[in-house]
Amino acid sequence: MKPVEPEGPQGSGAAATPGAEVPAAPGARGRHERPGDPGEPRTPLKVALLGCGVVGSQVVRLMHEQADDLAARIGAPLELAGVAVRRLARKRDGDVDPTLLTTDAETLVARDDIDIVVEVIGGIEPARSLMLAAMSGGKSIVTANKALLAEDGATLHGAAGRHGVDLYYEASVAGAIPLLRPLRESMAGDHVRRVLGIVNGTTNYILDKMDSTGASFSDALDEAQSLGYAEADPTADVEGFDAAAKAAILAELAFHSRVTAADVHREGITEITATDVASAKAMGYVIKLLAICARSDDGRSVGVRVHPAMIPRSHPLAGVREAYNAVFVEARSAGQLMFYGKGAGGAPTASAVLGDLVAVARNRLAGTHGPQASTYADLPVHPMGETVTRYHVSLDVADKPGVLATVADMFAKHDVSIQTVRQEGHGDDAQLVLVTHRASDAALSATIDGLRELDIVRGVTSVMRVEGDDTP
C-alpha cells in the first residue's frame, strides 16, 4: 500500500488515559540509553513522517526551525529520517529535503532505526495498516487522523497496548487547542458531565457570515471556499461528518466509554436559511453547529450528537467568530472550563503534532509510555429520541380563527409544552413561531409528524434545537 497526500487539516493528540503501565516497547531503550555525562551528545530519535501536505509540510518546517529547542526539551535531537508521499514530483510548501521523500511508506515504517511515526495522511486506509505495522515493530505513533480514530480507535488503542507503545492524537480535534490531554489527564480525577462546543471552523465561518451579513448559505459557502476555509467538496464539513468524528473522540475520552462515529447523531447546516438566521437574531439567539456529548440525568448512558442549534447571544460560544473553535467542558468538581483557539490550518495543527511528538519522544527515552485509553465505564450511547432539549418551530399556517388552539393541542397531545409563541404576517403568508420547554426528541418528532397532517398547516418550515440557556 502507498499513502495518499493529506486531504486537509487534520489533528492529533495523546491517546493516553489513566492505566497501569506495561513494559517498554522493543527498542525503546538500547541506543537511546542515558549517558553517564549529562553533556554527552545523545543519539537522535528518528522520526518517519507519513504525508507532506498542508499539515505535514508544516511539521517539517517546525522540526527544522525549532530543532535546538526540541532537543533541549526532549533530552535528545529529533531527526526526520523519511517522508512518505504519493507523488514525488508534487510541489510542496516549505523546504523539504527531496532525498527524504519516498513513495514506499510500508518500507519506511518497517525500518529498524525508526523510533516514532507521525501520520498526517488522513482517511482510513492505508493509514490504519501503516500505523498497525509500525506499532507491531515497536514504533510509537503520533497521528492527526480523526476519521480513523472515530471509526476504529479500538483497534489502534489495542495495538498500542499490546506492543507497549504510545498512540497520541491531540491534533485530531480542534487543531492547536489543548483539549484532549486535559480531558484525558488533567481531569482524570473528576467526573465530566457534558462537553459542548464548536469543533468545525468551516461551518462556523459560514454561519457567522450568514448572521453578520445576512448572506445565504450558498453565498457564505462560496466566500469560505474562496478564502480557503472550505474544500472544493465541502460535504465532510457542511454535512457534519467532520464534527461527528471529533464528537466521538471527545465523548470517548470524557466518559471512558467506547464511542464511534456511527454512534453520533449527525445533522449538517445545508438546510439553514437566511430566514432561520434572521428569526434567531430577532429572538436574541445565534445559530451554531454544535457537538454535544452529555451524560443522561441518571448517569447510566451518554448522548452524542452534532447538529445546528440556537444559543443565546449572551452565551460565550455565541461570540466565537469566523473559523475559530471553542469547547465547553462541564465537570462535577472543576465546574465549567472553556477551550478556545484556531481549530484548523497547517501551522496550528502542526503545533499540536509537535506537542505530542515531544511527549512521545520523552517517553521513548525514559523507556516507558503514556497511559492507555480508558473505556472502563462502558456506558451505552442512548438513541437520539431520548435526548431532551428545547425546540424552535416555524409553521406556515392558514390565518383564521382556531389555528393557534389546534396547533397547541397537537403539542399537548405529545406532552410538549410551549414556552413562547408569536405570529408573523397575515393571510396566506401567516407564520407561527413557537419555542418549547424541554422535551424529548422523540416527542418533538411525533409532534411535527402530527402537525404536517393538519389541513391548517401548509408547511413546517423550520425545526431547530435550542441549547445553552443553562450555561452562563
Overview of the molecule:
The chain has 472 residues and is α/β, with parallel strands linked by helices. Helix content is 33%, strand content 23%. The strands form 2 sheets. Strands 7, 8, 9, 10, 11, 12, 13, 14, 15, 16 and 17 form an 11-stranded mixed β-sheet that branches. A 6-stranded parallel β-sheet has the order 3-2-1-4-5-6, with helices on both faces. The longest helix is centred in the C-terminal third of the chain and has 21 residues, at 346-366. The radius of gyration is 25 Å and the shape is elongated. Mean pLDDT is 90; it is low at 1-30 and 33-37.
Count every beta strand, where a strand is a DSSP E run of 2 or more residues. Answer: 17
Structural class: alpha/beta
Uncertain segments are 1-30, 33-37
Radius of gyration: 25 Å
What overall form do the CA principal axes indicate?
elongated
Residue share in helices?
Answer: 25-40%
Query: What's the main sheet like?
Result: 11 strands, mixed
Brief rundown of the structure:
By secondary structure, the chain is α/β, with parallel strands linked by helices. It has 14 helices and 17 strands. It catalyses: L-homoserine + NADP(+) = L-aspartate 4-semialdehyde + NADPH + H(+); L-homoserine + NAD(+) = L-aspartate 4-semialdehyde + NADH + H(+).
Which descriptors would you attach to this protein?
alpha/beta; 6-stranded parallel sheet; 472 residues; 33% helix; disordered N terminus; 14 helices
